[in-house]
Amino acid sequence: MNNDFERYYQQIKGRQKRDALLWSLLLVTLYLGAGHIAEFDLHTIWESLPHFFDYLLETVPVLHWSLLFADGRTEGSLAYWGYRLPIQLPLIWETLQLALAATLLSVMVATVLAFLAAGNTHTPASLRYAIRTLVAFLRTMPELAWAVMFVMAFGIGAIPGFLALALHSTGSLTKLFYEAIETSSDKPVRGLAAAGASKLQRMRFAYWPQVKPIFLSYSFMRMEVNFRSSTILGLVGAGGIGQELMTNIKLDRYDQVSITLLLIIVVVSLLDTFSGHLRRWVVEGKQA
Predict the structure, then answer these.
(1) Which of 43, 59, 75 is where one domain is finished?
(2) Taking the model in full, what pTM does it have?
(3) What pLDDT is attached to residue 288?
(4) Is 65 part of a structural domain of the chain?
(5) 71 within some domain
(6) What average pLDDT does the segment 22-39 reach?
């Protein structure tokens, strides 16, 4: 019997090795083929990489220790480097508001759409597939593409950025939400149905308690993603700190490029830390 088990084990092990090798060869072939079609050239990247670091060195501000705390008219001081902070800080605040407003709206809309799109909530098939097709289209279009179209329609400002983030977030969150609903247990649903509960009551008291922690976790994660995306949307005139970054890049104001990037990095780090603590507190019940 031990010999039979050993033979079977060796067969399974050999099959796994063969499958792993075949899949690896397939992935390498696809990677090389895609790189050839996209004209991806490692040699060009290797030769051009020093230029990227040259640009980064250009953005490093010129600071002098002896003049570090001098007034804003003295070159080499911190005040001289951050002379545009009164403009940039409100733009950072605008970017945060943009991300928060878009996230709140998309979470509310996605929650409703998710319960209608889930396969186990007994929604009519035509409505379910219509919602799934709509949200697939919303998330297929990148935020940047939405922002460009809305900038052309509404002009430069925060409204195009808000609409772009809200639409893409709604598409992404709806898919995540209805998949979470579909993986929830149906035992509480059957119990409430046997007790005569309505469809709305089954959603409220059977599905919602199971998926609420997942919904909250995805929502906090999307808030972080939206802030990062909103900094990029500013590059096409959709408001926020990204617009300031693009202006500094175009005007070759290297010192202001560096302080704008530093502000973005600091705020993203703080937001990640805060949202992580808040998510653990809300979802897991742990003190931040």
Answers:
(1) 59
(2) 0.76
(3) 46
(4) no
(5) no
(6) 86
Domain check: are 99 and 48 in the same one? no
160 shares its domain with 268: yes
Contacts of 138 (CB under 8 A, 6+ apart): 167, 168, 170, 171, 174
> Distance (Å, rounded) from C-alpha 79 to C-alpha 69?
7
Asked if residue 72 has pLDDT above 70, the reply is: no
Residue 92 C-beta-side C-alpha neighbours within 13 Å:
18
Same domain? 171 vs 121 = yes
User: Distances in Å between the alpha carbon of 210 and those of 68, 157, 216?
Assistant: 55, 40, 12
Tokens of 59: 């953005």
CATH of the domain at 207: 1.10.3720.10
Range of the domain at 222: 84-284
Number of C-alpha atoms within 13 angstroms, CB side, residue 231? 19
Contact call for residues 135 and 117 (beta carbons, < 8 A): yes
Give me the pLDDT at residue 233, please. Answer: 81
**Residue 79 falls inside a structural domain:** no
Per the structure, how many domains does the chain have?
A: 2
Q: Are residues 51 and 96 in the same domain?
A: no
Task: Give the confidence band of 1 by pLDDT, cuts at 50, 70, 90.
Answer: low
Question: Residue 258: what pLDDT?
Answer: 86
Residues near 160 by beta carbon (within 8 Å), at least 6 away in sequence = 146, 147, 150, 151, 153, 154, 233, 237, 238, 239
**71 is written with which tokens?**
């007034």
- Burial 34-45, CB ≥16 within 10 A → b, else e: eeeeeeeeeeee
Mean pLDDT score across all residues of the chain = 84
